[in-house]
Design a protein that fits this description.
The chain has about 300 residues and is an alpha/beta fold. It has a single domain, classed as TIM Barrel (Alpha-Beta Barrel), CATH 3.20.20. The chain contains 13 helices and eleven strands. It has a nine-stranded parallel β-sheet. Strands 6-7 form a two-stranded antiparallel sheet. Helix 5 crosses helix 7. It is globular, with a radius of gyration of 19 Å. The two termini are about 10 Å apart. About 40% of the residues are buried.
């Protein structure tokens, strides 16, 4: 089964040959592995470890109160993932699962005006915040339309929006429904029309938001960190028929082989049940994890993640 087939089947909530694999890396970790001679300099860590998902992005920079122009030049650089101009041509189209990454409106406007300022605006100047969110959504979808019109093709979308923290959501579900629900649904509907299931990223404990994400059309949620109080077993039981669980593996265990084995094997027993699970570590892999320890962890993922 190719990576593309594996992830597509998983996102259809069917059982693949094994769990899909994806991780992110801190720059210092990659630099150390290269300096130590473990990671060849001519390949990325993602290529070396043969990850199943390949993420591309575009220039999503946005200036509030100004006219933000949508042009093909937006494809030359990337706010998230790899830029299309330089890297899409070398992608293993038909073999790897290719995803187009963009920020959803809350994350997008947070980066433009500041997160605390935006939260205050949502409470004190609701109409202004709502207008900015709508402008963000329209702007982002117009770029995505242009990218698809230019002939780029993707297997899915990666929607980035950090709307949680360790204790829960940054705002109530009432605020979510008032400000973001309709826009998230519009974005998910657009991608669904183009056969691009949506993977939603948010740090923090977003357990309370799960039924809303299911309703707007999100197909997978990541990274579901281990240290924020999410009960992954319960999450799988409650939502495993509707949404793919993506992540939940504590990379802090990787420094000890016994701990790593216990972490991966014990969680895979219930997360893999009936399909609908993709592996990733809670956080980007940092330099305190050795190349050999990380390599061993992925061997465990493939061993215990095979159906």
């Amino acid at each position: 089964m190719t990576s593309r087939d594996r992830i597509k089947r998983t996102l259809e909530l069917k059982v693949p040959d094994r769990v899909g694999i994806f991780d992110e890396f801190g720059e210092a970790a990659v630099r150390k592995w290269r300096d130590d001679g473990d990671l060849p300099r001519h390949v990325t860590a993602q290529e070396y470890f043969d990850f199943d998902i390949h993420i591309f992005g575009f220039d999503q920079s946005f200036h509030c109160g100004e006219k933000n122009i949508v042009t093909p030049a937006r494809m030359d650089t990337a706010s998230l993932g790899e830029n299309l101009k330089d890297n899409y041509g070398n992608a293993d189209k038909g073999k790897k699962f290719l995803a187009l990454a963009c920020m959803e409106p809350f994350e997008h406007i947070s980066r433009a005006v500041g997160r605390e300022e935006l939260l205050a605006m949502m409470a004190e100047e609701a109409n202004k915040a709502a207008d900015l969110f709508a402008d963000s959504s329209e702007f982002t979808l117009n770029i995505c339309r242009l990218i698809l019109k230019e002939g780029y093709r993707f297997d899915g979308a990666w929607l980035w929006g950090d709307i949680g923290y360790k204790e829960g959501l940054m705002f109530s579900t009432d605020y979510y429904n008032a400000f973001l629900f309709d826009l998230h649904k519009e974005i998910c509907d657009f991608f669904a029309e183009n056969n691009m299931p949506v993977i939603f990223h948010s740090d923090g404990n977003i357990r309370e938001l799960m039924p809303h994400l299911v309703e707007v059309g999100v197909r997978a949620v990541e990274p579901l960190e281990s240290d924020v109080g999410i009960d992954l077993a319960r999450l799988k039981k409650d939502y495993g028929r509707d949404i793919v669980i993506f992540g939940g593996i504590d990379e802090r265990s990787f420094g000890d082989k016994k701990r790593a084995k216990g972490e991966i094997s014990s969680k895979f027993k219930y997360l893999m049940k009936s399909g609908g699970y993709i592996y990733r570590a809670d956080s980007p892999i940092l330099e305190d994890i050795s190349f050999e320890d990380y390599k061993y962890a992925l061997e465990l993922v493939k061993k215990y993640g095979t159906y």
